[in-house]
Known about the structure:
The protein is an alpha+beta fold. It is built from 15 helices and 26 strands. The strands form eight sheets. A seven-stranded mixed sheet has the order 3-12-13-19-16-15-14. It has a five-stranded mixed sheet with strand order 23-22-24-25-26, sandwiched between helices. The protein has a three-stranded antiparallel sheet with strand order 5-4-9.
Amino acid sequence: MARTLQTPDMDKILSLSKRRGFVFQSSEIYGGLASTWDYGPLGVELKRHVKEAWWRSVILGRDDMVGLDAAILMAPQTWVASGHVQNFTDPLVECTNCNQRFRPDHLFIYEVTQNGRFLGYASALDQEEASRRASVLLPTAPGEYRQLPIFAGTLHQLMGGSSNIPCPFCKMVGKLTDTRVFNLMFKTFMGPVEDTASVVYLRPETAQGIFVNFKNVLDSSRKKLPFGIGQIGKAFRNEITPGNFTFRTREFEQMEVEFFVKPGTDEEWLQKWRDARFQWYVDHGIRRENLRLRRHAADELAHYAKDCYDIEYRFPWGWAELEGIADRTDFDLKAHAQASGQDLSYFDEETKERYVPYVIEPSGGVDRATLAFWLDSYDEEQDKEETRVVLHLHRQLAPVTVAVLPLSRNARLAPTAQGIYQQLRRRFTTQYDDAQSIGRRYRRQDEIGTPYCVTVDFDTLDDHCVTIRDRDSMAQVRLPVAELVPVLQDKVEHGW
Length: 496
Ligand code: ATP
């Protein structure tokens, strides 16, 4: 049956999440902490598998990459040199009527006209809602409305008390303040004294830990350019408008690469990484039609970037960024060399030249990727009278890879089924389930995306064979228990 490309309602994912233990609200027993989430038993496995898939593809699968795990806390000079203390800001607008604050560059704004006559603006933080409000502005006769693209450079013209843009919350016109900037870095203190000398920051990106280790890695790994360093780790940003579940939070995980190249070859490497990273999402199950590349406009580029592409996913609330691939030039290495007094240049043995490498940075969010894989895999299939909820997750990402299901909870079956379970769990993320009917148990595994169920029945006791069921086609094959591990290994590697 053909699946619709439409991603499911967030409510469906939220209810599945809570019911099955993917993600919980943080500190829920105290009423929760806004936009902060904890990954439950299934969520943690899904996220771990996303990180492992990234590490395998980006670090272990390439000769030109090595890994790193830098500390979250860094010398505060790092953030001065990198430009974050001065520039890591987001624009902030407040409504003087309802006091809500928001990021104006996250607004969807429509300009509504009729026969060339301006009727007004409609705005919302959700694209569908903005377009609904735009259509309400039109009287019965047809008119036009077009979406205004807004980036940092155009914000000042659009916001402020004299503008006609309505507040996205209370919808009043003329109540928005001018755009102010707000630094996103979390500050804390190192040691017992809370004064300015002891201020340290929670890193807002993992990238700087890589730049400051460039020389250490170069000297110890004997890598030659082009080569890169990758790491996965937590980052913190005091976001003005977090939201959309785990999409935008103040504490999140990044998976980042800094790839060092000879200046002049950077444009070619930007394309290579852009294409490789796009393909990674497709290879791990996201439908190509739900992904797109968007090149940054000149006024949207970060302070360090010469060029940048975003890989965007069609989230239920509209297209939004999964990963950015930027050409950071030699900005960071030069800035750190200057601030630290250390030489961060590279001597090219072949050409006998010395230069500061350029850097290509594919920077993705673990939580966003996890959410996108999850949303894109969700399906409801009509099966006889019932609806089968199934996550068609890539077999290497599913939280549980194999479920062992004895046909019934029977004293004769249990030792054999348990023996098989103990054997499989050493190699795969495996679950054992013997509660309720086999049909119910298949449904339970489908709903969490388990690609393979192994059923142990009474014939198994005599013929030493079990049945493997494929989640997507629901096809079943019977095979000797002795072949189970290699067959499952092959299926996890290559598919059913
Ligand atoms: P956005 O424009 O959505 O704020 P960004 O361009 O500031 O994102 P980058 O600085 O490029 O993001 O960070 C790299 C990646 O880190 C993003 O593509 C995203 O996947 C992830 N990321 C950034 N901010 C957050 C956040 N607040 N919550 C979750 N993931 C985030």
